[in-house]
Specification:
- Chains A, B: Keywords: FAD, Fatty acid metabolism, Flavoprotein, Lipid metabolism, Oxidoreductase, Peroxisome.
- Two copies of one chain form a homodimer.
- Chain A has about 775 residues and is of the alpha+beta class.
- Chain A has three domains: about 130 residues, no CATH class; about 250 residues, Butyryl-CoA Dehydrogenase, subunit A, domain 2; about 325 residues, Butyryl-CoA Dehydrogenase, subunit A, domain 3 (Up-down Bundle), CATH 1.20.140.
- Chain A is about 55% helix and about 10% strand.
- In chain A, helix 3 runs antiparallel to helix 7.
- Chain A is elongated.
- At the A-B interface, helix 2, helix 5, helix 9, helix 16 and helix 18 of A face helix 2, helix 5, helix 9, helix 16 and helix 18 of B.
């Protein structure tokens, strides 16, 4: 036995202890391993014959040490308190020296070399094997910690901007005791609570914020979006119920109605005395709303419209506020006058009276349980010949004359309908802003948890916060960067919407459609990642990520299916693109642009294509150029492709279908360029140097991570070479590592009140 | 006015009608458009002065046609029932001819040319503008439909394999009235129902299926996995409760205990008379279970173990069956004998008696609401010095001798613990098989819905099933292909596990870890995509996708966090890789392999690198080579990278951290190669020609889609050039288009009973 007796007789033998311990602790000894050890033993001229025999015996699996023995070896080794000994040989040698107690160290340099060689052959070249005997082995990974490079309060001011006071006011409301979260036993309780909350919000004046002052509002549309966004740090059923009432129902009256409707309804809507619905979608027509089948048939005799649902699948579906509380609804229906169809128009239709009794001819079915948003009472509505008066037509864009004739300033039914929809584009701003808040909550919770949650660690050292692991950083830091990117992008979208001139309408609509799709996909992705990154804790409802995810999951469907919206954006981009090129022939334009792009890239070759120095990789101009190149090349190639297919005889509908995947990329690349532009602009206009530096880093991470995701495309195009995309990957890793240090501060800067975050895992130490 | 009077006077003017209609219907006329039209008008020598004036007047926005007028124009055009007229010029000319009624057609070829030119300049070159006047415009896209190329029953036989009878038996059980789905008002009701279902399953003998015959089982482990998988077409809370009781609790007794424990417990576990738990995870130790802090201190005086929870964060957490029903638990705790720590061992510890009263010293807290699986009563368990007898140690791998000494055939505490864990690897087979069933359910529902749901369509034609859209195919078909890929891969994993020799243990453990991660990430992705692809319908609970998604969401955490598992796989691959290379020096191996790979690629250049012909792209050998190359190159470069960093002086823990992202790719690429290999093998051994063809196509789609996802890597490596990755993208689109025709049959072949699918949207016509 390698016991104390033997070792005290010849303490030089101690040099073998770390080897033997490691072999028996970790290895299933192979014959190769055994041979290696035998060679080592026999190379040591200082060993006596019987010592050699003993050492060799100890390699026999039948005579392996017991668990106790193994432990005693380890204790012996640890007794010398080894520190920073890089390999087992050095450790063994130190151990041998320390045990001499008057004996002579007889191990020589050439002997040590043989140990080193054996160590290498056994695959113990990494220092882990030696570290395990240490008490407090620390590593760069272990030592990394949160360390804010800026003042989070200042950063919050940058994010909140001019609406900082309103944001605080809303937070003050939400942190009152009435708004404490509940776990609901039943869906009915949840719906009742959500209605209650909405009533309080209405009382505070938030519901009517966007309405004109004469109807109790503040005439502040920007404020309304800010309210939606801030409320979204709280329960999202409440937000959607709020949005249905004041945004969809209220705004449809405001934008599609005229003075008489405003007078009649707005005040009561804003105070929530008149809960209502926005009834557009039908079971058979969701994305393709132009095909709605509900009819509004005009009867000139009594000057009424008959609202009618022709069949079950033409019922209005998913209508918020319909199942329980809605008393009236803006109903979209095809207007029929004298048998002629004038396309989809909007009407105010009664659903139930103040006591909740259904109006004659109205049938409502509850949509029942949903993946999330169970505090919202969505329903199906069928109209069985419900009469409404001529005044109930929302007549801003079309009306019926006193003579019973259809009048509209827009002759085309389609154009008229899309003009009406265009006024309601605000929904496509409110939704991504709400999604972003939810993503910010999720990221704050997941990042805080990862900062305190420790798991694994170096041999001989303590466990390490999981946020120090590169993979965890890769999971969360790019999302954090993107949340900042989306913040500035959605601010920009809001401003463009609020200040738009008439001829910017289509651009803003496309922008909103694209931002809505991009932003809500982001939220889904971010919250899914947060759920997984928090492991079992992320699965518990108390930590809120599951609700955030489930409640926002439908945002990718709300206000238009994202995939459909991205195609809308693409079509608008193709049209825009053609328009920008003016009179030039279509083919010529494409050829020109493609050549243009290729030339500019060829000119830069090899400087840009292969350049991998940090300065270049972090350069804003490089980023934006890469985004722009991608955007331009994709839109040009998509247009060319469709054109070629059609010229070759393909039906244009089929051609667009063949290119559908391509078109989604057209939309995506356009939105990404817009987002990056705004983020860069925000960095450039930031005054505080520390905040600016941190934002710059986030912006670089957003840009490079996006390029990395699209690297297949850049490589295909020859816009970058492999050496460069690899360097970008490394740089993304590096930026993740650096941003991690600011990560807590960056989430603090979101300024989400702790009471609203609520997740216990966000408050551990 | 372009009214009937005028037109009947000179019907040739009708040629302008389609142009004017389209301009006013679609355009916001720009000055360029107006100029184009004026040029056209003035080019027509047959027009009289007043006709020219009138036509020009009609371009004045102030004198635009009314909605009624527009409609009358359209009616006029449609009156001739145009069919397949490719542009407005032809349409106008046909219209003009048809209206002549004895008049003369005075429009000549050169006039028509001017129309064509104008049409091009106005951007009306696509035929959509003309199609809208047709009655029944059909396109290739419209006409695509489901059309099975094989017999789904035969395909189902291939999938079910030798367990076809057992699968049918389980389905017969699940389609009985007792198993009808419920919507629960309260979590208590759900838990009660799930327990009830498990009792029925136990009565049918499913719970003990894997147990030896002498304990009421069938000694059929393969059957047990089949049961888990088939049950997973039903409620997943039930599946997990079932798995906790019979898989975790039962198997821990079976694999970690010895005869005495089997005698004492197995029969009652299999019949569910003794509900129990598997208590490993603690709040502070989930992934890093080696660090568990619960202690089991041996007292030789009374031969007992004292089970103790040292602090709140060392409580057992997320333990299934703990909150309500569990009477005993297999508890993992550090065994302490005489102050010496012998690592983590397992003990049977009482939680509550048959009447549900907690055992003295046991404290249990309910985990409460979760994202999903709310039918499972997960809880936290704290032990306050709970005494158990010496016999309660599960002593297959370690025990305490009569003299109070620790005995084990495995000296190393770590190795012993990982050996114990190794026997429980079945959980990492059951979980991905359950996940796959859930994904199959989701895909069946989403694909059936997309096959009947119609939205949008060509101008003048009917609406088209959304499954005919390329983008929708791209969303669902690769997932369908991957579900087949996973099916064969998990079958292979199961067989390897069941037939493993002793020295295959580590390989199988790595394989199971990797397949679990790959398979559960797949399920999460697939179900998320299904949710979105079904729009609002996918959000309603009645259509089950939301529950499938939420219930399986934690599968990526269960049985080990996927990211951690993939790193385990990577480490095993690095070790394996080194071992395969035998005695060779580590550095030499890497250099050799890297060179090897580069040479083989260089040899193939340019044939493989640029080859884009269909035969090559669809070739199994090309696919597998590409997967293998990726796997080999990634593992070699990861090893080299870590080695270089350590040699440069970095702590090995830090070096592994730096390469963490890389390591996850090592695991992923290994699993992907294994999956493809098994899928190809399954295709090759399929007898029925029609099924074989269809499986072959799915296998090609799986392979090419995976390559497409990794195309950035292949391009970086120079393994493929852009021209090839673009061709692959096209081929993926084409395969999606072709697989779509078989999609309904391919989901029918899963053989999921309609009662279990249940989603109304899966049963529309």
């Amino acid at each position: 036995m390698l016991n104390s007796d033997l070792l005290s007789e010849n303490p030089n033998l101690c040099i073998f202890l770390p080897f033997y311990f490691t072999l028996w602790e970790d290895f299933n000894l192979t014959t190769t391993d055994i041979d290696t050890m035998k060679k080592l033993i026999n190379s040591q001229s200082w060993l006596k014959k019987e010592e050699i025999n003993l050492l060799e015996q100890y390699l026999n699996p039948d005579q392996k040490p017991s668990a106790e023995e193994l432990k005693s070896w380890k204790n012996q080794i640890q007794f010398i308190k080894p520190q920073n000994l890089k390999n087992l040989t050095t450790l063994g040698f130190e151990l041998a020296k320390s045990q001499q107690n008057g004996h002579e160290v007889i191990i020589q340099d050439k002997d040590l070399k043989a140990f080193q060689k054996a160590e290498k052959e056994l695959g113990l070249i990494f220092n882990e094997a030696a570290y395990r005997f240490e008490d407090s082995h620390t590593t760069v990974t272990s030592l990394q910690q949160s360390k804010s490079s800026f003042d989070p309060k200042l950063m919050q001011e940058i994010l909140d901007g001019s609406k900082i006071d309103l944001i605080q006011k809303v937070k003050d409301t939400l942190t009152k005791a009435e708004f404490a979260y509940h776990q609901y036993d039943k869906i009915e309780d949840q719906r009742a609570q959500v209605l209650e909350w909405c009533k309080i919000l209405a009382k505070e004046g938030y519901g009517s914020w966007a309405f004109p002052r004469e109807f109790g509002g503040r005439a502040d549309m920007e404020g309304y979006f800010t309210i939606m966004e801030t409320l979204s740090y709280h329960d999202l059923s409440m937000v959607i119920k709020f949005g249905v009432q004041f945004g969809l129902w209220g705004m449809s009256i405001y934008f599609l109605g005229t003075e008489k409707h405003h007078q009649k309804y707005l005040k009561e809507i804003g105070s929530l005395e008149l809960p209502g619905c926005f009834a557009m979608t039908e079971t058979n027509h969701g994305s393709n709303v132009r095909g709605l089948e509900t009819t509004a048939t005009y009867n000139h005799d009594d000057k009424t419209f008959t609202i009618h649902t022709p069949h079950q699948n033409a019922r209005k579906e998913y209508i918020g506020n319909a199942a329980l509380h809605g008393q009236k609804a803006t109903v979209f229906a095809k207007l029929i006058i004298n048998g002629e169809d004038y396309g989809v128009n909007a009407f105010v239709v009664p659903l139930r009276n103040k006591s909740g009794e259904l109006h004659a001819g109205v049938e409502i079915e509850d949509c029942g349980h949903k993946m999330g948003l169970n505090g919202v009472d969505n329903g199906l509505i069928a109209f069985n010949k419900v009469l409404v008066s001529k005044d109930d037509m929302l007549d801003r864009f079309a009306s019926v004359s006193d003579e019973g004739k259809f009048i509209s300033s827009i002759s085309s039914d389609n154009k008229r309908f899309f003009t009406m929809l265009g006024t309601l584009v605000g929904g496509r701003i409110g939704i991504p802003r709400s999604a972003l808040s939810a993503a910010k909550s999720g990221l704050t919770i997941a990042i805080r948890y990862a900062n305190t949650r420790k798991q694994f660690g170096p041999e001989g050292g303590g466990e390490v916060p999981i946020l120090n692991y590169r993979m965890h950083q890769r999971r969360l830091m790019p999302l954090l960067a993107k949340s900042y990117a989306m913040h500035f992008a959605l601010k920009y979208l809001t401003n463009r919407f609020l200040t738009k001139s008439e001829d910017e309408g289509q651009e803003i609509e496309a922008l909103a459609a694209g931002m809505k799709a991009y932003g809500t996909w982001f939220a889904t992705e971010a919250l899914q990642e947060c759920r997984e990154a928090c492991g079992g804790k992320g699965y518990l409802s108390e930590n809120r990520i599951s609700d955030l995810k489930n409640d926002t999951d439908v945002y990718t469907t709300f206000e238009g299916d994202n995939t459909v919206l991205m195609q809308l954006v693409a079509k608008s981009r193709l049209t825009e693109f053609k328009k920008e090129m003016g009179d030039m022939n279509f083919t010529a334009i494409f050829n020109y642009l493609t050549k243009q792009a290729k030339t500019s890239f060829a000119e830069k070759n090899p400087i840009v294509v292969r350049s991998t120095d940090d300065k270049h990789l972090l350069d804003f101009e490089f980023h934006l150029n890469a985004f722009k190149y991608r955007e331009g090349a994709i839109v040009a190639s998509a247009g060319q492709r469709i054109k070629r297919l059609v010229e070759d005889g393909m039906d244009s509908f089929d051609a667009v279908n063949v290119a559908q995947h391509h078109l989604v990329n057209v939309g995506q690349s356009y939105i990404e360029r817009k987002v990056l532009e705004q983020f860069q602009l925000a960095v450039e206009t930031t005054q505080n140097a520390a905040c600016k530096r941190s934002l710059q880093q986030l912006c670089q991470l957003y840009a490079l991570h996006t390029i990395e995701q699209n690297r297949g495309w850049y490589l295909e195009q020859g816009y970058m070479e492999g050496v460069k995309t690899k360097a970008i990957r490394k740089m993304v890793n590096q930026l993740c590592w650096e941003v991690r240090q600011d990560a807590i501060a960056l989430t603090d800067a979101f300024g989400i009140p702790n009471q609203l975050l609520a997740a216990p895992i966000a408050f551990q130490s």
